[in-house]
Amino acid sequence: MHICAPSGRAANLNLTKRLILRIPAVLMLAQPLIRLYIGMCQDYETPSAQHWLKYARIILPNTWLEGTTNHASLFWSTFIGACFTQCVSITARSLEHIPSAEDPSTFNLASFAFLLHVHSTNRAFLPNAHVYLIVISRVLELMGLNVLQCWRRPPVSRLVYTSALGVLMTMHYVYTMLYTNEYPIMHSTTRFLEASTAGIILLTLCLHGLTVFMTDGHVSVNRLVFTSANMPRSTDDYTIAVLKLGTACLHATRLTGFSLELKTLDRPLHTYVELHPDGRSVLQHGIVDIEQMESDGINGYETEVKNVRVVMNEDPPELGSPVRGGDKLRECWSFVSALGQVVKHSLSAAALRLEPYCPPVPGFIHNLPRYVRLFWHGTNGEARREARLRAEREHTAELDRRNERLASLHERFLHRQIQRAPTGIHAPPAWLAIEDLDPLELISLAENEAEDLPMFQDVLLKHMLRPDHAPPLTRREYRQLIHNESRAPARDMALSDIDHSTKKNAWSSAAALLALPAGPDLATVQTASDRNTQLALLHLLQERRRMDASKNSRPDHERSRLCVVCCCEERTVINWPCRCLALCNACREILANQQKIILSHGQNRARTVQLCPTCRTPVLAFSRLYLP
């Protein structure tokens, strides 16, 4: 079956056009419906149906009840009417671009045709009153849904209409199965699934209400019923609604247990984020946020997102899905999968409890799959097994070789670092002159070697008190100052010895200058390095004075959780849409108040945005994590 939607926008059909399109299908189902009703009332041989058939025969004249019905031709006309109705429904849905959520495919035309064929040709499954009633309910459902689709907003929702028929047929199934043995077994699969799912829902509600009563002393209806996230839509069918509620009950039972209440979800605020299975992050803004962005620009660090929606991986429509009732089959599969997970979890828990009391498993049980493989495949299966084991061993050996290589590279790096350490004041530098002026190197030396906080502060004071025309403080001089400070008996002696230390290191500073490029580049490098180093070290000094000594001894996995800006607080802010977890809330507030980056959109349009500090992606919004 090929469903071809019109090119361009959807067709705007009014009520008259919808009636003209759907009324022929309704008329084609009306004639088989009347004949099915007459055939049901003509059944006098089913004992369990006689007490309600006498009320159904009241509206029919006696002449219509005489004789028999040709059920083969009746079921054939019913099938033709159902096919025509499905074609009309698909055509209308394609013309108006009606999504599957508003008009789901629940009528399985293939199974309906199979059941009609069996009852028409097989004498062992001749139709009785129960079969006629089941077929009448299917035809009524199909015809009523087509009538309701004539209105853009139907007077009765799809869920209410199908629930009335579904509850009535479920009661008929339960009554017939409990008190008689005349219900057609071929039609009991769907009704058994609906009845068992309804039983699971009622059991979950009863246990949940009992838990609420035992914990709070009273039962509140608002806490007992399902939340809006679990409730079915008004466009769902009865079967889909029951399966959705049953799946929600099974998930709640498996994840939270009957001892916890079902918590309500937060309602979405203005802006929300949709996370797609393919890795895309779609940010949906509200009207208020869009108006603010148009007037003030985009400031993502001021727009907080408190609602993140995960879009499930929706499979593309399969070929023939409207014919087979693909939406109902999909919900049925979800329910069966959830039920299987609950059963598997229960069996695993029971096996773990009984494991200490059970005898050990014999050794041949573990080798049983191998024996079966040898018996079925012969030596071919054993050869594939040996090849797989050989590939696993080679992969493990390759990983070991890579780890050994990384370890050797790390050892060589540490060895070079040890060789670079100066042995005296006149030792030549083992690094480049440009690296000697790098502020990051000085900061790393300060963080790694200045473990004594007072001594570290004195060295920074020496750096700050250097005159502007003096050469910048190099790494070698920095190490020498640390060694000198470690020999000093007190901090005041170190502070009083500033001029002497400067004169003492003049030769080494001049030697370092010989390795630098001459000319204006040298002055530029010296000035920029001195200014950047002073600012960086002054900021580091202020942070080190605020931080406690215990905070400096954090392990690596804890330091990796710190903010990339302040390196003090944990990261609690996620940037959208890049998903970078990089900032704390305090740094986020500071960045929100800073000057924004101008992002051009054409020649006459420009927007101000904030960029992510890690990936430089424009930040449209943020979310906060509340870590326990």
Which class best fits the helix and strand makeup?
A: mainly alpha
Estimate what percentage of residues fall within beta strands. Answer: 5-15%
N- and C-termini, Cα separation: 54 Å
Number of strands: 9
Runs in which pLDDT lies below 50 for 5 or more consecutive residues are 256-269, 420-436, 487-523
Total count of helical runs of at least 4 residues: 25
Largest sheet: 3 strands, mixed
* Share of helical residues: 55-70%
Using the alpha-carbon principal axes, give the shape: extended
CA radius of gyration? 39 Å
Overall pLDDT score:
72
Strand order of the largest sheet: 2-1-3
GO molecular function, one term: ubiquitin protein ligase activity
Keywords: Membrane, Transmembrane, Transmembrane helix
Transmembrane segments: 159-175, 195-214
GO biological process, one term: protein ubiquitination
3D architecture notes:
With 628 residues, this protein is mainly alpha-helical. It is 58% helix and 6% strand. The protein has helices at 15-41, 50-56, 71-95, 109-121, 129-148, 158-179, 188-216, 221-224, 238-255, 287-296, 321-324, 326-354, 363-366, 368-377, 379-420, 433-436, 439-449, 453-464, 475-487, 491-496, 498-504, 506-514, 520-546, 556-559, 585-593, and strands at residues 272-275, 281-284, 307-310, 573-576, 581-583, 597-600, 606-611, 618-619, 621-624. It has a three-stranded mixed β-sheet, with no helix packed on it. It is extended. Mean pLDDT is 72; it is low at 256-269, 420-436 and 487-523.
